[in-house]
Amino acid sequence: MSSYNRLRNEKSPYLLQHAQNPVDWYPWGEEAFERARREDKPVFLSIGYSTCHWCHVMERESFENPEIAGLLNDTFVNIKVDREERPEIDAVYMKVCQVMTQSGGWPLTIMMSPDKQPFFAATYIPDVTRYGRVGLREMIPTIKKLWLERRSDLLSDASEITRVLNILPTAASQSPGEEVLHRAYRSLLTSFDQTYGGFGGAPKFPSPHNFFFLLRYWNRTGSEQALHIVEHTLQNMRRGGIYDQIGFGFHRYSTDERWIVPHFEKMLYDQALMALAYIELYQVTGKKEYEITAREIFTYVLRDLTDDKGGFYCAEDADSEGMEGKFYLWTPEEVQSILTKDEAALFLSEYRHEDDHSVQGMQEFPEGQFIPHLKRTSDVDEKSITTDHSGKMESIRKKLFTQRKKRIHPHKDDKILTDWNGLMIASLARGAQVFDEPEYTQAALRAMEFITRTMQTREGRLLHRYREGQAAIAGNLDDYSFLIWALLELYEATFDATHVMKALEYQSHLFARFRDERSGGFFFTPDDAETLLIRPKELYDGAIPSGNSVAYLNALRLSRITGDAAVGEQADLIYRTFGAPVKEMPSAFSQFLCGLDFALGPSSEVIISGDMNREDTREMLGKLRRSFVPNKIVVFLPEGPSRHAIDTLAPYAKSYSCVNGQATARVCSNYRCSIATNDPGEMMTLLKRDG
Q: pTM surpassing 0.85?
């Protein structure tokens, strides 16, 4: 067994995976750069994460290879970074890669000078040259020769890259308006795959914030096509191999256009955001299948990604036993050995399709193995699926799931990240509201209590990562933005005003430490963070929404809940920074556009007075929660002494109380409020009229 390198004492599962490589890895820190300066060596920076398939491939091919490790150790000082643990470092050097190569991804490979000036960027690099892609074995000696003989050329290139990276956009003179909503919709419509759903060709990613925007666009315009895009895509994703038909939850993305063959890793943020998309689609359509899907996703997360202390783990790997997807594949013979003859015939007829062999050939699966998936929606007669049929299929699924549990499981990344936990808490809290499910409320509250108790400094500032009893790394923009979102959802799930108080507390830290005074919006790192090549600022809504996009809607909601104009001005500061990029490519900012849709209005404040222990109050809240009314905030005014907290936060509502001794709603829009009503139906009519 090889000896350990300097990663052995780290907490990151990704770094620990590399702790016995023959590469002399350092974690990110001054010790590594000081050695590079002292020995006059360039730095080899490798960034990835523990459930990254191609990171595993590069490790097996190169970092475990003594010959290549020797070349790396001789030429470079080598640094490993977990992109999930240190997203600010990843953000900087991913921008470098995008500037230099017009692409990006993980593993991310950067070569740079000891003062952190990058001169080379790539993603996966093979061990030896193949298919036109230069391998590390040939590349490293060339880099060493250039460093020794033509260093000035390398450093000149590095200086130009750094100069380009430091050109920050200024606030736009013209701000985005309703027109960009229409342009974003037309862009998504153009790229929509009419046959299989989703956008563009393979590979296809979930991008749930596109669905959030399209549902709001449907709500604004009545566009049935916008609703069709969401419904057609989410139906086919749920039926495809990208969804784990046996154990639930979504895999990372589909390698084919038909959603059949996934990249098998499962990420916490995908579960949170996809569940939220199905919840909203359920609110729009009332169709039970969307509620079931959201509940199944929560079942997976609460079963497999939840820590005993309440927080949520990051991810599960794509690989097990050295093969991608092995845990999730089946053979007909295995299915037949587990199920009765009739059950096996039924399962194989519905979840294995002869015409899918050509697609599954895209992956190197052993002969005869298949990914369970259903036919796409347009090929299915939904009326033929009876309750009896559904009961049989659930019984079959449970048998297969029980057998699958005996397999060797993929690696689980058990670190807990504040930002991703914020997304999951927000999603569970929304599910608790819409489905009237106390279990989801309790899970969300436990996770929030864990974060605020364990991942917060004495000064009330957030920390980013927790693992094995240690919380560390200063909180970034996403940590604050996503957790504020979670607190706002928890308030509407519980109407405990302390959640709004906590959200305002984090909001004050955000504006004190992250604000970009020059261009508006927020930097990704606080003002007292480690100085990097640039101070990153994320606007684009990528695999997850940007912290700026989420912060924008948070500020809008907080300003409406509290009636505080100063918080509304904070929202405007964020809004101004999006002008130029949003006008250039609006569909790349679909989460921001959800906030813009709210800001442009019409939007409403729903103020409900009542007693949560009474049926009339629960009926009124239930009616509101089951309906899709995205551009609203809800303030609940309880009877009795517990009302003091919300009166302090929302002083404009002090004079409101129950009428006729019953639950009472007031709908406010455009700076005016309707007359009070005790009728939930009238409340919804007022909302639809004003909205």
A: yes
